[in-house]
Amino acid sequence: MDVDLSEDQEFFRETTRKFLETEIPVENVRQLADNPAGFDRDWWRRGCEMGWTSMLVPEEHGGGSLEGEGLLDLVIVAEEMGRLITPGPLLATNVVALAVTERGTEDQKKELLPGIVSGDVLATWALNESGGRWHPESLELEARPVEGGFSLRGTKEPVEAAGHVDQILVTARTENGLTQFLVPSDADGMTITPMESLDLVRRYGSIQFDDVFVPASSVLGEVGQAEDDVERQLQVAIALQLAETVGTVDRIFEVTLEWMFDRHSFGRPLASYQALKHRFADMKLYHEANQAAATAVARAVQHHDEEASLKASSAKSYVGDHATFVLQECVQMHGGLGVTWEYDLHLYLRRATTNQVQYGTPDDHRERIAQLIGMDEESQ
Amino acid sequence: MTESNQSMETPEEFQLRARAWLADNMPRRPEGQGHLRNFDRCRELQKLLHEGGFAGVCFPAEYGGLGLTLEHQQALDEETMSYDMPLALNIPTFGIIGATLVEFGTHEQKQRYLPPMIRGEEIWVQFLSEPSSGSDLASLTMRATRDGDSFLLNGSKIWSSGAQSADYGICVARSNWDVPKHDGITVFIVKIKQPGIVVEEIVDTFGGTEFCQEFFDDVRISMDDVVGEVDAGWTVVRGLLAHERNSMGNASPLTSGLELAPTDHVVSDIVDIARTTGMASDPKTRQLVGENYALRFVQSETTNRISSGMARGQFPPTAGALLRLMGARAAVRRSDVALAIAGSGAAAWHEGDPAGNAGSRFVGRQAAEIGGGTTEMQRNIISERMLQMPRELAADRGIPFNEVRHNAATTQKSKK
Predict the structure, then answer these.
(1) Rounded to an integer, what distance in angstroms lies between the CA atom of residue A233 and that of residue A103?
(2) Is a pLDDT exceeding 50 seen at residue A119?
(3) B35 to chain A nearest CA, in Å?
(4) pLDDT of B161 above 70
(5) Among B264, B387, B388, B393, the residue to mutate for chain A (most A Cβ within 10 A)
(6) CB-based contact (8 Å) between A317 and chain B?
């Protein structure tokens, strides 16, 4: 959690936590494992009434934030959702909301934003391609100019909530460079195949595009000029993902700390063993460092900091490694219980691990840092 | 400018005024300046800052400071980054001892000692550790014997950074041996250059002489120079240690100017080694460079988070231990990364190669986990004071100090 929240933000956090604890405690998340979408649309709409999809949208299109810094409000929701491993396309839909808000035509905004804000329209971002490709330079899905628009060919996977949303923002490559399209999920020539997923309720699908026609009016931003837009979307995705990951660790750290006092062996609580206390000190440090990094990225992205990419990659690589490290330590502290299906810990580890490897692995982002700081330039 | 004028100045106005003054008066930071400990230079620089009205920003105005806020100090720090600053005065003089005198000193002590400190005329050192008391500081055996209206100090102190160049020391000694260890300690202000005190330099693994050992022989201290109450000095020590953790974690309002490390300097360092060893395109090297950059970023953001959280009361004062631990862990990791990238260049190099110091950095690596309180002590503080886990068993708790078991005689080094 940010140590610098306003009173309104604090209140919003409490309200969000209460709503989630009442509406969708972890028992319900387990039940949703059998639901094909992993979440319920009516429940999503009620969440949207609390502002889950309005923060990045301007007021004239039905949106609004607490104090004009929508991403800083939205990461509060993401973090609270991490604490209860809540389902729902919060990241996916909001990235699209941001992209349309920042780059959409008036028509595109009018058509999509009010529905996204109300929860009637769900959206996702089709960025990834097979083989772990997410980096904009590696993308291959082809957009070929045809009369009246473009024809899309290729495969996008994994795409979050594919098959359970209404609009898909597709990042494609034209001869002139990256171009993004807003494609309705029922467009002709598109085949969506559900994939197996590590997280119990966060679903992914593979979308095959067999010469899917998209009209020129579906282009978001400029043809061939989407590189900066994609970068901005990535930053927002990473900021939300980091907040969610921090939330998962926050909850499990609490639970495990309590366990250390309750569980006794050799007539004394686990919390009294120095070997374990020292591991907890390290875990506490990593958790604080993770929160510091996540907060700094949210602020940098909100404020269009010129080093936002570097900051996002730094935090993404650090938090990716250290969040799952802390969670695995928590498993170890629990002993056998920690590796059972019945105990909730693995659900959190599933979410944090999914986040660790989506939108680039820690290794990918360390490589990206090396590029961004100029390792490839000639030595002076 | 009068004090009332200054107190009305906003941090932004203060910053603009500092910018103009620094440009006209302050020398630029020399290229590649690390932890240079040239105290004579520091005295001159501090004097200059004081004359310009930019010294002791957060020290109370009645004791020679400016009485301004942390925001003013941070604004000044932004401006002084490219200037030569008396950074060696930050720890321990301003951040630890200045802070301790502000918190525990008498009015007379503050009047006497703070203004010359802020003018750069008197440099301070801490006399805490002893040859037989390290992490268990309260087991110290320097003897403070009451003699009429004063005390006589006898014993030895060690690991005192910069004692050879300092003017005054804060010294912790045992004034009562018949009570449990925490209850018989008194804190003194000691003038270093006097006949009863011998200062010897200790050569560290880098070949440097940052640390000293001191030998006290009937050093007479006036009652006016007792900080806090007689026998109740442990309260002062705890406060002092909290100030130490804050200062070392870059979270003290009383320090001025920022080291280049651990910010940009440590990044360019590692990148330079990668380039000169021809490894800039090696994937493993690039991973290490990326990791090092990320670590620098996360370390500085963690400092921001914890220090602003402590200022708001969201973290207890003991949270400084998190920063100490973070700083130590990051320093250790950086030295490992430098060694890995330097490869054989760390063992044999041409004069001037950036890789050249990677080996000796690695050899002296653990200093980061030892100096300023070992990381084991920080982990105890975090788990016991922050997370409220049970305290470690202490075999000396509640027992008069003269009945407690001490080290075998072999660890005592004495000078005769």
Answers:
(1) 11
(2) yes
(3) 25
(4) yes
(5) B387
(6) yes
CB-based contact, A271 to chain B, within 8 Å: yes
Q: What residues in B contact A320, CB-CB < 8 Å?
A: none
Q: Determine the pLDDT at residue B36.
A: 54
B194 or B357, greater pLDDT: B194
Cα dihedral angle (B247, B249, B255, B258), rounded to 10 degrees?
A: 150
Of the residues A274, A305, A313, A373, the best mutation for testing chain B's interface (the one with the most B CB atoms within 10 Å of its CB) is A274
Cα distance between residue B383 and residue B376, in whole Å? 11
d(CA B357, CA B365): 12
Give CATH 1.20.140.10 domain extents, chain A. Answer: 227-372
The pLDDT tens digits for A129-158 are: 999 999 999 999 999 999 999 999 999 999
- Chain B CA closest to residue A369: B290
Cα–Cα nearest to B80, from B248, B260, B243, B247? B260
Q: Give the pLDDT confidence score for residue B413 in this predicted structure.
A: 46
Read off the DSSP letter of residue A136: G
Report percent pLDDT > 90 for chain A: 97
Using CA atoms of A333, A334, A340, A341 in order, give the dihedral in degrees to the nearest 10: -90
Domains in chain B (CATH in brackets) are 10-122 (1.10.540.10), 125-239 (2.40.110.10), 261-386 (1.20.140.10)
* Residue ranges of chain A that CATH labels 2.40.110.10: 124-220
Nearest to A296 by CA among A365, A362, A235: A235
ipTM: 0.95
Residue by residue, DSSP assigns A308-359 as: HHHHHHHHHHHHHHHHHHHHHHHHHHHGGGGG-SSSTHHHHHHHHHHHHHTT
Q: Is A285 within 8 Å of chain B by CB?
A: yes
Domain with CATH 1.10.540.10 in chain A: 7-121
For the stretch B203-220, pLDDT in tens is 988 888 889 999 999 999
Q: What is the mean pLDDT of chain B?
A: 90
Say which CATH superfamily domain A227-372 falls into.
Butyryl-CoA Dehydrogenase, subunit A, domain 3 (1.20.140.10)
**Cα nearest neighbour of A280 on chain B:** B383
The DSSP secondary structure of B222-248, one letter per residue, reads EGGGEES-TTBHHHHHHHHHHHHHHHH
Please give the structure tokens belonging to residue A159: 């795409």
pLDDT at B126 over 80: yes
For residue A288, give the nearest of B295, B322, B390 by CB distance. Answer: B322
In whole angstroms, what is the distance from residue B93 CA to residue B185 CA?
22
In whole angstroms, give the CA distance from residue A108 to residue A219: 10
Q: Nearest Cβ partner of B308 from A4, A284, A313?
A: A4
Instruction: Give the model's pLDDT for residue A86.
Output: 97
Query: What are the structure tokens assigned to A150, written together?
Result: 């473009």
Mean pLDDT of A51-79: 96
Contacts of A370 in chain B (CB under 8 A): 286-287, 289-290
Place of tokens 């098959």: A163
According to CATH, the topology of domain A7-121 is Butyryl-Coa Dehydrogenase, subunit A; domain 1 (1.10.540)
pLDDT, tens digit, 9 for 90 and up, residues B39-56: 999 999 999 999 999 999
Residue-level length of chain A: 380
In A203-262, the residues whose Cβ lies within 8 Å of chain B are 257, 260-261
Confidence of residue B7 (pLDDT cuts 50, 70, 90): low
In CATH, the architecture of A124-220 is: Beta Barrel (2.40)
pLDDT, residue B258, reads 83
Residue B263 confidence (pLDDT) above 50: no
Q: Which residue is closest to B271 within chain A, CA to CA? A: A375
> Are residues A205 and A153 in contact, defined by beta-carbon separation less than 8 angstroms?
no
